[in-house]
Amino acid sequence: MEAYNPNPTVYKSAKTIRKSGAKEGSLWLVEDEENIEDSDEVEPLDQDEIFDLIRSITDPEHKHMTLEDLMVVSAPQIRVGSNLVDVEFTPTVPHCGMSTLIGLSIRVRLLRSLPQRFKVDIHVKPGSHQSEHAINKQLNDKERVAAALENPALLSAVEDCLASAGLRGERLE
Amino acid sequence: MASGRDQDVEETVAAISDGQGTLLDVVKALGEYLTSEEDALRTKGVEFMSAVLSGCPPERFNRQSVKVLVSFLCGQLEDPETVVPALKGLLSLTYLPTFTSGDAVDVFDAILAHVKMKSLVQSQRFIVTIALKGISKRFVPGYISLVNGEKDPRNLVLCFGIDRVLLLEFDVKDHIEDFFNITFCYFPITFRPPPDDPYGITTDDLKNALRKTADTPGLVKDVCHECLDLLKEPEKSQAKPAVKTLCAFLSTTGPVSTYTLAKAVPLLTALFHNPDEASNRTPTLTLLTELVKAARDSAPESESEVKLAQFKDDLLGIMTVGLKNESSCTTALEGLKALVTTKGLMSNDELGYTVHNVNEIIPLEWANTEEIIDSTLDLLSTVSTRSPMHVEGTTLPLLFSTLPDRAPPREAASERAKCWQTLAFLSKLCKQPSLFETLVVRLTTKLDLICGSTAHSQEDIEPSAAYAHSILLTLRNVLKDKVDLGHLDVAKYLDRLATGLHMVASEPRLLKTAGEIITLVVQVIPTPKQQSFLDSLIKAYLHGNAKILALGSLKIPDDQVFQPLEPSAPSLQKNMIVLFSAAIIALHKDVALPVADTSQFLQQLYVWSVHHSETLLQREAAWYSIASVTNKRCDDAAQFLTACQEQIWPSDIAVADRPVVRRRLSISAWTWVTKALATRGHPSAEGFVDRLFEVFDDTDINWDAARALGGIVAADDILTKYNHAVIRILFAQRYCNRLLPQIVEGAKGAANGRQQVAYLVALTSLIKTVPKTTYVSEMPTLIPLLLRGLQLRDPDIRANVISTLHSATDTDPNGSSIIAEHIGTLVSAMLENSKIEEMPSVRVRVAALKYLGLLPKSVRYDKLHPYKSTVLKELSNILDDPKRAVRKEAVDARSNWFTCSG
Fold this sequence. Notes:
The complex is a heterodimer.
Chain A: H1 47-54, E1 78-80, E2 84-89, H2 99-113, E3 119-124, H3 132-140, H4 142-150, H5 152-162
Parallel strand pairs in A: 2-3
Antiparallel strand pairs in A: 1-2
Helix pairs in contact in A: 2-3, 2-5
Chain B: H1 6-17, H2 23-35, H3 39-55, H4 63-77, H5 83-94, H6 101-114, H7 122-132, H8 139-147, H9 153-169, H10 176-184, H11 203-214, H12 217-231, H13 239-250, H14 254-273, H15 281-298, H16 312-323, H17 329-340, H18 348-361, H19 370-386, H20 388-401, H21 413-429, H22 433-454, H23 462-485, H24 494-499, H25 508-524, H26 527-543, H27 571-575, H28 577-584, H29 598-612, H30 616-632, H31 638-653, H32 660-679, H33 685-693, H34 702-711, H35 731-749, H36 753-767, H37 772-775, H38 779-789, H39 795-808, H40 817-821, H41 823-834, H42 842-858, H43 861-878, H44 884-899
Helix pairs in contact in B: 1-3, 2-3, 3-5, 4-5, 4-6, 5-7, 7-9, 9-11, 10-12, 11-13, 12-13, 12-14, 13-15, 14-15, 15-16, 15-17, 16-17, 17-19, 18-20, 19-20, 20-21, 20-22, 21-23, 22-23, 23-25, 25-28, 28-30, 29-30, 29-31, 29-32, 30-32, 31-32, 32-33, 32-34, 34-36, 35-36, 36-38, 36-39, 38-39, 39-42, ...
């Protein structure tokens, strides 16, 4: 397989997304989190939660690195509306031939992890890829996505990338 | 003869070994096979020959036969059909003692002359490579030309190994350039194993093999330069393996290590200072930190010279610059830690300089992230284990000065958060005995001020209580860590902490934390000291002599006596029993209660807990004391135990006309007494346990009694080793082995539904506390019962059942046939318990989803298949749960079910 970017830039991974143990507005320093239990508070889906779902997808070209390591995805590049999720990603090089596979992996992960009411838009960061338009079109065309997933080789490549997705920022090694 | 069957080979080998035949006979017999015109026959012939050779014992070969065989087999190398078997034969011969270096040269020449490496397939090249391993001087240039251009990773791993041996053992002076070419043309390694690679060679295997090769003196210079080039782009992915390679050099010989550092450190230092590379400062620091760590870890114990000494000022300067920048701060802290932990590197003044710089970032807004705080604390506590004076002299005053004397008002959330953060810092930094002393003095003084300031005011006192609580928690946490670390200085804080803390009686959370502090201190003081402390406690609590307790703001008015156990005592006094009990539970068993009659005292506590106490906290405190004394001094308690059986059970528990609330409290007290007896394996424990079954038909209290059966052996914080409890080994197993059959029997076929449910409750409560091995053989009987338990309304019971199922389910798809048998019921029960409409408890929903996600790993796919589409569909609705924790488990469970397939 041709190497598109044998020596990509590695970024420092973000910290684990963890809300501070002390609840805002509380007077008391609470150490264990058992108090979360019976509150009726609704915790809406936010960009951090979406990021958590996709951060540990393996980069198809660098099997020991995640999309987060290479800053292909990041929390600020995600927008969440009431029934809409918009994910932007950044290929490491403008000629990266893996971009579609990356986008497809993100789509499949979100397809499996989000309630059906959400419409998911996935696109590369404007100006970050030479075939930006083609990739975006492919990733957001329902039928083309479905057709791609009918292809067993492609599906297995996607599953390979997704195998690590459950790590949610824990280290691969 | 030459049928190629293993049996023939074995027979032939046996004949030769027994001396019945000779190798010559074999050659003769093979005659026409070896010279046949037909390719297949020749291959077979040589193959047979080689097989026999590899089987024959060495003593059957003499010098002459080896020579003949070598020249014969070398001849066979010319023939493409016999190359492989001939090489195999030669390979066996090379192991023989009679195989001389002359033979080696011949073999080698023949290989060079006749083997056309590039026309062979991998497996054949592999044999060639193996056959070459271990021959001599003329070998080197030939070897180089042979392996030049090899691409298959399987062979490369081997080649790198051979390269290393050659470089170490052979005279390769004239060929070093060539060696560099045949090894470092592969550097950096970008190999990616194909999916499903059956050979299992990973990128790391190759990298490690290559790194070891690089680790040989001849190559160092060239490799070093290659790596340094890669370091010039510190942000790229190859920089890390490059720096790892350089780090590997550091642990070789002295000169190599010095050379490497002299090249790498200045390069990275310059890079750090280069304004054009400002954006790469963080990765540059990361690489430097790697080098510093490697230099630190590679220094042998005996070595007096410190490798990094000449770079120390530069490094320290760079790290302190990096420290002040948000993005590089964590890395800089890590780097500083590496410098601090390098033996003999940093002077005391430099440690002070480091601490001073770290102090500067502590108050900064951006440094208030978990990651930076953790690294800061890590560094500061590392420094203070080496020399506490800097942290004590500069960091602590800085931290204490930010703690106000009065609580931040209710609306000042950020100020409060700041206090908590400061306290968190203090609790991490002050474990060192001298630092801990400062902490205790400063924090108890602070407590005095806080409690004093609110004693008489009418204002909102909750913020003050909460602030005091956070300070107490800090003390508790440090004490706990110190006790775990075995620090002996804890004992000397008895007065300051155990008696001094009696000022906090008004708020349950403060009481609880203060109690924990008292327990921690009393645990570690020696028996005689415990005894005298207890004497004064009893004087205070039972005889009204409260002067010894620093009651602070709770000064007892002159017209009031301190009698917390009196029914009419005010609530604040009753609360003090929590602190009293906190000391009692930590006593050694040799410490006798200085009361006239221990049994009577226990009876008094019991009556107080059921009739006069006002809160759960107070009641539990009494029960803990009863349990602790009964456990440690059961002889003193004999009369009390008799009273339990003869009075308390028949007239407080078993009588239906008493108020249900009281009966329940009595069952709780009963549970603690039984627990105390069972824990020490006391013979009367069984009698106490069996009584509980007697009320299984009484719907007012049967669930309480049933739960008590589990509570008796559930883990607790009172009857522990730290609290010097008398614990019989494996008492919980014994207990379960005795009761489980009885309970299972009852759950299956008790007289009526009420009793069956009680047995079911007992089962679910008991089974979660016992190790899996106790009941795993009973699973076929238990599973149907547990599934019935899942239908009980109580969320606690459901959570227990699910966690029991979880621990009883192996993550081995071929193991749990019993789980597979019930898969349909399990799947639908878990799905029900995952839905918010059916199950309001978040805990149960999370547990059910976790279990659902476990099934694909534990049950064969063909059993799961019929449910797969239902599960995926139902889970897709649960992905919309209002709670994040539930959604997370739903995602994980769903993805496990997605990927499972036959």
